[in-house]
Amino acid sequence: MATIDFEQLKERSLKLRERYHELERTHHGSEWTIEEDALAFLTDAGLVGRLTMSQQGRWPKENTQEELKHKLGESIWWLIVLAERMNINIEEATEKFLTKTEKLIEG
């Protein structure tokens, strides 16, 4: 399986979001707001929870594994998009979180 670095992930995510913005303008006359993007992310995050329950045998659903993989990837995509739209450097935010949390845990 090919791997992509964070910069490639960000670049591809933002290009894909722009394509969705084009569809939104065509179908609704305007792009989704940041709040609508955040709500879409929360919806997908909720689906990750439900699909996790299914994968673990706690909720009856078929085709769980592939849908779960898709929603996990989509959730990462949404976080990248949201960070960009709110002028937050996602790489820096992730690094700071990891460093701070590692220090707390290793304490």
TrEMBL record:
Listed CDD domains: NTP-PPase_u6
Gene3D superfamilies per record: MazG-like
Superkingdom in the source lineage: Bacteria
Protein name: MazG-like protein
Source organism (scientific name): Flavobacterium petrolei
